[in-house]
Design a protein that fits this description.
By secondary structure, the chain is of the alpha+beta class. It has 8 helices and 6 strands. The chain has a 4-stranded antiparallel sheet with strand order 3-4-5-6, with no helix packed on it. It has a two-stranded antiparallel sheet with strand order 1-2. The two termini are 26 Å apart. InterPro entries: Knr4/Smi1-like_dom, Knr4/Smi1-like_sf.
Length: 235
């Protein structure tokens, strides 16, 4: 099956789920409403690729050309890809984390040093340790300084070069699509907002295999169809 054939009829399937009275039961449906952007024209992906310096993963490229430039999808939907007066950009909650100028750089498989993360977590100030009339003020100052160090370690822009934020799941939990490097074409989940030392991790299917964009999207659609059209809650 070619990448183009993989997406045949998917736009219609999404519309069928969205038209069902029970479609609101699908998680995130109120965010995307099962609406899809119009597909890109045949020339537009190449225009984007010339700007970012790398070809998009083929399954995502064909999704943009066949299904839509974003909209209905996992969680609160696939971030729309739009061309504005300022150029191409992905739009959505957290899309600004994507560095469009560094998408051709290989995405780093490994995050910050685990020992450094643990050491910094051990140094995190605790409010109950600050007593006296100036305790709260001192705690706030220490916490602000700690937050700066945490952001430098966990949210350094170097961590997510070569990838684009493609979706959000609420509470600042996001999904990235890797465009460059050994993980090219795969989805990674971003749990850094939890501030417990959890980094970005690859999304895996039920058998433990890495999720490509196509598998990520089609698994969502199949689960939505089971829930809404068949009435089987499934996974």
């Amino acid at each position: 099956m070619t990448e183009q054939q993989m997406w045949a009829g998917v736009r219609e399937r999404v519309a069928a789920v969205g038209a069902h009275p029970q479609s609101a039961e699908v998680f995130g449906a109120h965010g995307h409403g099962f609406r899809l952007e119009e597909p890109l024209t045949a020339a537009e992906p190449a225009d984007l690729e010339a700007k970012i310096g790398i070809r998009l993963p083929e399954d995502y490229r064909q999704f943009l050309l066949t299904v839509g430039a974003g909209g209905a999808g996992p969680a609160y939907g696939v971030f729309p890809l739009r061309r504005t007066g300022a150029g191409w950009r992905w739009e959505g909650d957290g899309a600004d984390l994507t560095d469009l100028s560094r998408l051709a750089e290989p995405f780093p498989v490994h995050g910050p040093d685990a020992a450094a993360v643990r050491a910094l977590l051990d140094e995190r100030p605790e409010e109950e340790d600050f007593d006296g009339p100036d305790g709260l003020e001192e705690f706030d100052a220490r916490m602000e300084a700690w937050d700066e160090r945490w952001a430098e370690l966990m949210w350094n822009p170097d961590r997510t070069v070569g990838a684009v934020v493609i979706c959000h799941r609420g509470c600042a939990l996001r999904e990235w699509l890797v465009l460059s490097g050994p993980e090219r074409g795969r989805i990674w989940a971003d749990h850094r907002v939890d501030e417990d030392g959890t980094d970005l991790v690859p999304r895996l299917d039920a058998s433990g295999e890495p999720l490509t964009f196509a598998r990520w999207y089609l698994d969502w659609l199949e689960a939505a169809e089971r829930l809404v059209l068949v009435g089987d809650a499934g996974d």
